[in-house]
Amino acid sequence: MDDHFATFTMSSREVHRLRRLFEPYELLAGRAIYQLDGAGMPQQHELPAKNTLHSATYAKKAGMSLPPPANDQSYWEVSAIDAGHVHMLLSQLVDTAKEGEMVDLPVLSFVLRHSRTGEVILFDLGIRPDTEAYTGARALADTMNITFQGRDIPTALERGGVPRANVKHVVISHIHFDHAGHPRAFPNAQFIIGGVARKVIEEQGPDYPGTFYSIDVPSERVLYLRPEEPTGRGWAPLGPFPHALDFFGDGSLYVVDAPGHVPGHICVMARTSADGAWVCLAGDGAHDWRHLTGEAGIGHNPVCMHLDLSSALENIARLKAVRDIPRVRVLLAHDVPFVQEGKGYWPEKIASL
To answer: What is this structure's pTM?
Structure first.
């Protein structure tokens, strides 16, 4: 493993101290965001008897596939941007971690450019470089020995030849600080956000206190999407995913409802060639590739990172199922193997399968 992603050890006493500190914050955060949406409080600490991740339920469905390309099919060229890193307890991510073991996680944003129009969209904005702006997240992180560092995404984009003013859409997988970035740095973008997060953003302000929710987004430029609400286009199944929206209407890019991690979590399925290749930008649907390979279950020490664990497990099973479809590349927001390979960074393109 690259030195940047080396693991470290925290004492047992420190782990227990963090567990006591962390539980009240996350329970309150989960209760607040779910109650704002009129839903019940998730039982995030009740793990299944066997915390394993299988795709059999979805893979066995007859005809599990993705729609074939149309004649002269549009697609997207995809690149990654280094969007920061987070230093945290590994046991919050995987159940095979040693007591006190810590890890540096990469944070990725993705640039997508339309093959026909040249339109540029972004998936996630990572961690903004002026991390002092994260007052709520910073206060909680300081009590938990979590550290993080941001990156200047607009400048990185412009160095690759795309002015920030040219970005027309930004898909934000969810409103955790390490994904929401600095939306106001993109003056002409519309922001695509999962609809369940709307009340938290609108009623609680840009930096939700005592939690890792943090987003300062121009309200007049937000499109909230959720399957239960009419959009004029309609949601439909896509491969193993029950709810996906053909966002541009040309079959090239789908916004996918991907619940479990936090309310409003979404991902993107995009074509990466005219002849049938795809990428799944999974966000925090899985925090570690071992969740998809079955080498580890979801961690829960001091707490589980997913507020609705049963839905998270179902979503991970769907991610594994879509990964098993030929010519589909799955990329995680904290994708250590991808970062270690070191290919496909903006303005270089991620190769299609």
So the answer is: 0.85
